[in-house]
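Researcher: Going back to the complex we discussed earlier. I've cleaned up the inputs and rechecked each line, so this should be the final set. Can you rerun the prediction on the complete assembly and write out the structure?
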Amino acid sequence: MKKLLLIAILIYGTAMASDHQQSHYSPKLLSQVKQLRDYALNDMLAYELTESLTTEVGARLAGSEGDAKAVAWAKAKFNLLGFDRVTLEPVTFRRWVRGEETAEIISPYQQPLTITALGQSTPTPKEGITGQVIHFSTLEELKTANPEEIKGKITFISNRMERHKDGSGYGTAVAARSSAAQVTAAKGGIGTLIRSIGTDNNRTPHTGVMNHDDNISTVPAGALSNPDADLLVNILKRDQAVILRFTLGSDFDGEYTSYNVIGDMLGSEQPDEYIIIGGHLDSWDLGTGAIDDASGCAITMATAKLIKEHIGQPKRTIRVILWANEEYGLSGAKAYYEAHQGEMKQHILGGESDFGAGNIYAFGTRIDNKALPLINDILNLLKPLGIDYAGNQSFSGADLTPLREAGMAVFSLAQDGTEYFDYHHTANDTLDKIDPQKLAQNVAAWVVVTALVANTTENFGFNLQDSE
Amino acid sequence: MKKLLLIAILIYGTAMASDHQQSHYSPKLLSQVKQLRDYALNDMLAYELTESLTTEVGARLAGSEGDAKAVAWAKAKFNLLGFDRVTLEPVTFRRWVRGEETAEIISPYQQPLTITALGQSTPTPKEGITGQVIHFSTLEELKTANPEEIKGKITFISNRMERHKDGSGYGTAVAARSSAAQVTAAKGGIGTLIRSIGTDNNRTPHTGVMNHDDNISTVPAGALSNPDADLLVNILKRDQAVILRFTLGSDFDGEYTSYNVIGDMLGSEQPDEYIIIGGHLDSWDLGTGAIDDASGCAITMATAKLIKEHIGQPKRTIRVILWANEEYGLSGAKAYYEAHQGEMKQHILGGESDFGAGNIYAFGTRIDNKALPLINDILNLLKPLGIDYAGNQSFSGADLTPLREAGMAVFSLAQDGTEYFDYHHTANDTLDKIDPQKLAQNVAAWVVVTALVANTTENFGFNLQDSE
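Model: Rerun complete. Updated structure for the full complex:
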């Protein structure tokens, strides 16, 4: 059904464009955007920005020294790139820090294990937690288990994430990461381990946030690398009690104020109307945050810079937001909404790049149906990049959630995520995972959408609940 | 020229087989071997042995607790598999132990680095070595550099290993690992780092032995993972002094006695003549030593067991040697030769499996030219497995070096090593890297060679210097 609807929309769109021979954008603009799109395919600015952030700053866990360095980096880069206005908006959150991380099987076979704490995990005692491991294939199995089986034990969920181009294996698998600690605590367990939420076979465990609420009891929680999880499963198959010890030093540590770093290319006609683009500036601490999300910051910074340089001042303001603490709090997203909730109607359309640096293959929207004709020219210009329409049910990036929920229209440019979860949230998230050609294709696509939307004064719909 | 020679030999071989319609092996034996070859393609014994050694013992660095466990494991398995004679032959060597390992760039950008000590590296002081990094693209560059440039600095060699099916990129790249520390010391440097000798892009550095001689000065030496080496290169490109600190706790630590564990399937006619097969029992300590070299041990143990079980007692003794401390001393190889040098002429033919678990694609020999007709039937039976002849210049495995140099004829079954150096000597050398089907293809090939050679009383040549 969804597919049929999509086809219907596509046919409708094409009909609008070809039958009426009319466009919502000037021929000159369309020609300029086409030229810039093709120029962007060979431009290295986004790669240079990605290289710069990962090399000169590196890991930038929210609340760490790297966070402050990243903020300074972003401010300086926006200025260097000629943004008209650069703003630092404070974002305060509860800081979480990683500490020592060790794990080993004690019996029946001594084996060291590779482990990393889940984000927001509480610490173990210094000497670690030692206990028998009880194995569940899925979170559901753990949820339905008898508490008597779990009391005093370490739970272990071995669910394996599936590889898909659109990353859809993540949503299924990640529930274990989110909830294992609270479910384990509720049943009297003393700690929990999960198989990493990732598609690789490397000894590089995947961190990522877990649920934490001061009012809900929890246990220390870590992810084993996938080969380590395999090893543990194989030992558990031998039907002997498996005793394991792990130590996590991670803990909350006071409050910290970071910043959403905002670069505006001001509009000539409606400077107070915004097309919102960006990525998140923070990263997990294990790698240098190349695909998550230096690339997203770089793609969108380069997009605004190229438009200003090659097409000139847009009618509306192009606002690039480099979001603070996406990873364990969506803190920047929440703070921005609080600070700007009175201006929501000026937020015309928003998108975020936060799924690596693979080629973009689909453009999705969540706009008023009446505004759909506005995207025909966008689709025509995206087509030669290998990008098709993905329908009008887009949710865009996580950092846009508060704005989308407040009614802002959004779009997404879906990246090929086949390999994304090999490296996501691991020490392996480094610059070498990025193909400069693919990164440039991303910029070309972002240029098309951003330049057209910033150069029309038409609207894309607001408060979409009404139009659904 | 080599290729022409190879073709000539192949034509000669085929001519021998087809024109004369004669065989050096009985039709019954050939039929039995063919049947067993096909059976082995679906047999899981080698995989089960690999799983058992990596799961129940895991890492087994020579001189470690894992070494002793592996020796006990091997003795027990040989007995369980019905070997006629199981012998532990002592192998004494200078033990080397790994310690703490840390590295970080201090300026111009603070970045933690992933490092591992090279085997036989001496330790740094406890507080580490801090110094300016001086970059060389190759070992040759370092060798020709002015000592004034190097004095008081940390050298860094960034040569990148190439990926080839036959692993030939290793020989070119590994010289940096072997010699960097001694060359650096000779020129007054204080430490050395190399880009890992590996073809992957993982944050899992590759260890491996370096040259050590108490009479030649040296410096502490480590390998950076490949993404870390890339990062360092990118920082060095910025033309600012790069200051780095690294700490290695590795050191020599007394003497240790391990064992070559030898399983014999005794011959009925010439029990004192041996076909030597095997792998090395020790591994590096970072992974569980699955492809290096649990698989080699398992392939050859399974080969002897399947032959005895399905074809019966061989005419000559099939001797499976699980060699001690291959990785940082070839200690087992040397000890075996010393203990058996009076029996060299009874060592009819030898091979070692020590290149992972990829499909075998070539069979090579180093036998007397007069014995070449003996391999026609072997080649005919290997052909359906996708295995061609690789000529008569084989060097076989490292553990056979003393025996080969003493005159023993050798063979090799060359494995596809395209991915081998992604994992070799890293934490990533784990069971999941092994495809059970490919492992079974290995056993099928080893069965063909071993069963035929063990069931003829003809010779393959000795002291080949004369026949070259």
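Model: Worth noting: The first strand of chain B starts at residue 85 and ends at 97.
Researcher: Good, that matches what I expected from the previous run.
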